[in-house]
Amino acid sequence: MRVVSGIQPTGNLHLGNYLGAITRWVKMQDEGECLFFLADLHAITVHNEPAELRANVREMAAVLIASGIDPERSVLFNQARVPAHPELAWLLNGTARIGWLNRMTQFKEKSGKNREGSSVGLYAYPVLQAADVLLYQATHVPIGEDQKQHIELARDIAAKFNSDFGVELFTLPEPLIGASAARIMSLRDGASKMSKSDPSDMSRINLIDGDDLIVQKIRKAKTDPEPLPDSLDELGARPEARNLVGIYAGLAEREPAAVLQEFAGQGFGTFKPALAELAVETLRPIRARLEALRSDPAEIDRLLARGAARATALAEPTLKAAYEALGLSRG
Ligand code: TYM
């Protein structure tokens, strides 16, 4: 089992990233060989401030380590330190089809009405994401629901390359999506996902929010006046309630059904304080570890450079074979 996944270093991590991806990355360290990276080459496809990007890469690496990613056991690095990623992405551009990229919903969302003014990088981004995982023969890619389409594209690219060039080069990666936390929604609107780009900070819980702010955000989260039901089916038409139950389940590492068993018949006057306490207790130690790590940026840089050297070595055989399959002589 080889696990590969990435995250964009675009400022604050929120509970959606934490429950949708990171807690699951942490667990997978016990199950297989893991590579985790900061997708800084993806971050430059939209407007970027160089100094901010540099700081965010370090900050996110520290957050991952504070959350339980062990840089000894896992290969932790930033993409830009491993040129094999953009190299393979270019090779795969010959295989990826424009029609496939045209179907990517994330490009449509991110480009919005300004499609013509978007960068070529934003459009081609899913090919780089395919390279990210195919380069390491990833078997499993833990992600939130919103990234599933990109991993399916990686499978299509891998299958077409293998068949076009008559090779068994690329492994088809499986997207791994968590049951309860696949899509953590905004605290203000159960119909939109929790996101760094939401203009309201009250819509998300950031991993660096202090105890009081977490309590306040949960207290103000949108809900309905009904008590919690005893089955998940009955939450179907109550997206805000379902979201809070999902967050509780994710934080407590329990099934949403088990959470409902405990709180059935109780209103949000009881459930919200319990959720707030759980969130505060879970995030406080992460914040404390993060502060310690922040005081030594040189150590973070050293860890990332070492991770990149390990990743480069793991990527080399696949990159070499891809050049050969295409008939390219490499320097
Ligand atoms: P990114 O940086 O937007 O998000 C990182 C991870 O967090 C998950 N996630 C969520 N899960 C549940 N609920 C939410 N509200 C929520 N918001 C974010 C995402 O699904 C993701 O797993 N393109 C990727 C980064 C990437 C990557 C890769 C991932 C680059 N190359 C290769 C996997 C494999 C991205 O922008 O994720």
| Annotation, overall tally of beta strands | 5
Which structural category fits the helices and strands?
Answer: mainly alpha
CATH topology of the largest domain: Rossmann fold
The total tally of domains equals 2
Architecture overview:
With 331 residues, the protein is mainly α. The chain has two domains: 2-182 and 297-325, Rossmann fold, CATH 3.40.50.620; 201-292, Orthogonal Bundle (Tyrosyl-Transfer RNA Synthetase). The protein is built from 13 helices and five strands. The strands form two sheets. Strands 1-2-3 form a three-stranded parallel sheet. Strands 4-5 form a two-stranded parallel sheet. The longest helix has 30 residues, at 297-326. The protein starts with a strand and ends in a 5-residue tail after the last helix. The site of tryptophanyl-5'AMP (TYM) has 24 residues, from β1, α1, α7 and β4.
